[in-house]
Amino acid sequence: MSASNTRERGAAIDIQGATKRYGNFTALDDVSLHIEPGEFMTLLGPSGSGKTTTLNVVAGFTDLTSGDLAVGGKSIVALPAHKRNIGVVFQHYALFPHMTVGKNVAYPLTLRGMDKQARDRHVARALDMVKMADFAHRYPAELSGGQQQRVALARAIVFDPPLLLMDEPLGALDKKLREWLQLEIKRIHRELGTTFVYVTHDQEEALVLSDRIAVFNQGRIEQVGTGRQLYDEPMTLFVAKFIGESTSLRGAAETSGSETSLTVAGQRIVARGKLASGQKPVVLLRPEKLALASANAPVADGQNSLTAQVSEAIYLGSGSKYQVTLRDGSVAIVRASLEAQPFSIGDTVDLRWSTVDAKLLADDDRADMTMT
Ligand SMILES: Nc1ncnc2c1ncn2[C@@H]1O[C@H](COP(=O)(O)OP(=O)(O)OP(=O)(O)O)[C@@H](O)[C@H]1O
């Protein structure tokens, strides 16, 4: 765990065509994912989308129906969990209640037959890493939830695994503690250089922690990318709605050349690009790309404008957030900077944006699942 040889400590992971069936139900459907050595990869998705199944497959707790899994370039599908040398942390701490913190953390080393002197050194280092060195003689019941989770983390890293798997490790903790521990986990990842695979359904947590995020939906990976890529360049409406806030506009569509125009509430808007035939278009807009203008103010070239009424106005200190309702009853979310002209509930306004800032996507019923 010395700071000197960090990055090379992490193992690359290759999941190839992983499928897991329970009877006729397919929990994982041909999932492939490459994770770089030392990368922080988050598996993000709604409940039941296959994140935990993927993690359990890597850990060796669940067998694949078909597909392959390699860690550090070697297939490990045939290896039982206890021979995989992978650290695992779950949402529920699973510390041994009858052992002190020190004994809990030493346990994986005892299993590996390490002598007492080396064991003590490793335990001290792991407890130091999670800032729990002063608690070695306490029992789990004498610790808070956050402290227990830090001990669980120490126990998972004490044997220097090349890969650490975490399944919603902060899920049972309150928001403040969760946010603080997210930063701690980030620091520990940086200091260890181990490959981390982290499961969460919380998109903010995924953005804070990850080098890259794999977005799961119904047993498949919908898109893999950095938080910025998923936010700016979502490939599907599901991904667009799962990461960050957005407004979706729908209407009768017409394509001409490289542009698609939509009639929304009787007014025409334009988006770049076109979709395959048979796909219904949605125009997706992020709140910071939208602006409000006084009704009927002149519209610049390359701008779109829709009449709307302010239905909510929230002052956020750093700016304002508006909800506006269009004539067809649909709703848009706008984030305005401090300098922007303030509007009040009930004002009739124009909702404005640049054509280049709109994203044209195929409509997708499954995207509604993100709201549950
Ligand atoms: N042993 C099992 N037998 C039958 N179905 C299972 C089994 N384990 C998981 N499943 C199903 O597989 C699907 C994927 O489950 P998984 O636990 O991977 O989802 P998840 O994305 O981790 O969700 P959550 O955030 O709720 O844990 C779910 O529909 C689940 O009910």
Automatic annotation (TrEMBL):
Keyword Transmembrane helix assigned to the entry: answer is: no
- Catalytic activity line of the entry: ATP + H2O + polyamine-[polyamine-binding protein]Side 1 = ADP + phosphate + polyamineSide 2 + [polyamine-binding protein]Side 1
- Domain (ABC transporter) spans 13-243
Sorted UniProt keywords? ATP-binding, Cell membrane, Membrane, Nucleotide-binding, Translocase, Transport
EC no.?
A: 7.6.2.11
Query: Pfam families this protein is in?
Result: ABC_tran, TOBE_2
Membrane-crossing residue ranges in chain numbering: none
Keyword Transport applies: yes
Q: Which GO terms describe its molecular function?
A: ATP binding
Specify the domain of life of the species encoding this protein: Bacteria
Q: Which SUPFAM superfamilies match?
A: MOP-like (SSF50331), P-loop containing nucleoside triphosphate hydrolases (SSF52540)
Which major enzyme category is it? translocase
Q: Which InterPro entries match?
A: AAA+_ATPase, ABC_SmlMolc_Importer, ABC_transporter-like_ATP-bd, ABC_transporter-like_CS, Mo/tungstate-bd_C_term_dom, P-loop_NTPase, PotA-like, PotA_ATP-bd
Relate the protein's function as given in its record. Part of the ABC transporter complex PotABCD involved in spermidine/putrescine import. Responsible for energy coupling to the transport system.
> Which family, according to UniProt?
Belongs to the ABC transporter superfamily. Spermidine/putrescine importer (TC 3.A.1.11.1) family.
Check the record and name the NCBIfam families matching this protein: potA
The subunit structure is: The complex is composed of two ATP-binding proteins (PotA), two transmembrane proteins (PotB and PotC) and a solute-binding protein (PotD).
Name of this chain's protein? Spermidine/putrescine import ATP-binding protein PotA
For this protein's source organism, the top of the classification is:
Bacteria, Pseudomonadati, Pseudomonadota, Alphaproteobacteria, Hyphomicrobiales
Q: What gene does this protein come from?
A: potA
